Amino acid sequence: MKSSLATSMVLLSMTVAGLGLSACGSSSTPTTTTTTQPAVPVAPLSGLPDPGGAALHRPAMTVKIENDPNSLPQWGVDKADVVYEEIVNGGITRLAAIFNQNAPQRLEPVRSVRPTDTQIVWPLKGLFVYSGGAKYAVDSISTAPVQLIDESSAGAAMYRDPNKYAPYNLIGVAPKLFALATTHTPPPALFHYRHHAAAKGPLVARVVVPFPSIYPVTWTYVPSTDSWNRGMNNFSPAVPVDRTGTGAIESPKNVVVMWVKYLGSYLGAMNSYAYLQGSGPVAIFTNGHEEIGTWSRGASKGDVVQYHDAKGHTLLLTPGQSWVEVLNSDAPALQITRPTKKG
Predict the structure, then answer these.
(1) Following DSSP, what letter does each residue of 96-138 receive, concatenated?
(2) What one-character DSSP code corresponds to residue 245?
(3) Would you call the peptide bond into 237 cis, given omega within 30 degrees of 0 as the criterion?
(4) 8 A C-beta contact, residue 247 and residue 70
(5) What is the pLDDT of residues 7-36, one digit of tens each?
(6) What is the tens place of the pLDDT at every residue in 246-293?
């Protein structure tokens, strides 16, 4: 019995020693460890990386911003994900700036609601920030699935600048406005983005969008930034380059021109608004090119507008800020300047 036990102990020792030699020998195969890095979150409205993930944990916030000459310089507009420019009463234009990824400390000047805003915000939901408004316009926005925040309900999230005169002195504080949100559901994406392939349409150096009166907008392509500098050359004095209150040039990556019907008594009437259901022509200026096609939206107000070329392919935008010019369908043609050929 003792001899058998001894023999077993010797065999066990030899086995352990053999395993040790095998592990130390040159014929062993090294172990490779692969670490998968978590994907960087992407902001739904801009298509840009959002490492902190803020855009996925708060709603869209649409802020009405004045756009007449007395409103300049505007504050915070360059930090919006998307900006809609719409025709309102009197034939002037006003902005609906949509924030999600960024939360500027100063948004100015905050102005009143118009009926077109109801059409814009329905699929976005989230917050709608405005100074106030006439009953017909407030009644309209009250039908949309948004949380309304006006000057009377904003508390410390809005204040008046004593050094400016009304109605151009109402300031919104985006972080405080976001803090008032009762929901944190992020908005749906409004566009599809091009991440590698270049745009394929004709090259464009400059385009003028013919809004009424003094409100045509000139967009000039800047290759070094792959963006479009905004100018209002019919203002007096002219504004060849639109700069915000911080000095930043308003220069989005994309300009989307939608031709739409404005319903109401006439364009610029108090009851006039852009009808954003159905379909119509679209021109998208991106990556220095013009892509033409059709915009379409389903029967539901909650449907997101889709953009397709003549073959039915989705039109792709450059990740970054986008401006949507909501132009009347009977407007004059765009004034497009093509780049001159070198040599």
Answers:
(1) EEEESS---S-BB-B----THHHHHHTTT-SEEE-S---HHHH
(2) T
(3) yes
(4) no
(5) 333 333 333 333 343 333 444 555 555 556
(6) 999 999 999 999 999 999 999 999 999 999 999 999 999 999 999 999
Q: Which two tokens stand for residue 277?
A: 């259901």
Q: What is the largest CA-CA distance in the chain?
A: 112
Structure token pair of residue 115: 């009926």
Q: Does domain 54-337 have CATH number 3.50.90.10?
A: yes
User: Counting every residue, how long is the chain?
Assistant: 343
Count Cβ atoms below 10 Å from residue 136 Cβ, excluding itself: 12
Enumerate residues 6+ apart whose C-beta is below 8 A from 318.
193, 194, 199, 226, 253, 254, 286, 287
Q: 159: number of CA atoms within 13 Å, CB side?
A: 10
Residue pair 176/156 in contact (Cβ under 8 Å)? The answer is: yes
Phi/psi of residue 275, nearest 5 degrees: -95, 110
Which residues, 6+ apart, have CB-to-CB distance to 300 below 8 Å?
A: none
Rounded CA-CA distance 221/148 in Å is: 36
DSSP string spanning 136-202? Answer: HHHHHHTTSSSEEE-TTT-GGGEEE-TTS-TTS-EEE-HHHHHHT-S--PPPPP-SEE-SSSPP-S-
How far is CA 62 from each of CA 28, 35, 98, 113, 200, rounded to the nearest angstrom? 62, 40, 4, 11, 32
Question: What is the C-alpha separation between 45 and 259, in angstroms, rounded?
Answer: 21
**Residue at 295: amino acid letter:** W
Q: To which H or E segment does residue 207 belong?
A: strand 206-209
Q: Give the residue carrying structure tokens 């566009």.
A: 191
The C-alpha atoms of residue 128 and residue 60 are separated, in whole angstroms, by: 9
- Token pair listed for 179: 């803090």
